[in-house]
Amino acid sequence: MTTKKEDKSTWAIGGMTMIGVGVGLFFMQSSPILMVACILIGIGLGLLIASILSRKKEI
């Protein structure tokens, strides 16, 4: 019986979003728009990392 390996590349999206929230909290006092920008950057980087990781597993 073979065990199925789970694809954990999707964890990158959530992880990078959490990093974006953490970094955004530092900028919350200066500008709330920067917090939103950090969250969006975190989501974008997470999607990029997830696509790279899932692509490596296919090869």
UniProtKB/TrEMBL annotation:
Keyword Transmembrane in record: yes
UniProt keyword annotations, A-Z: Membrane, Transmembrane, Transmembrane helix
Transmembrane segments: 9-27, 33-53
Protein name: Uncharacterized protein
Species name: Algibacter agarivorans
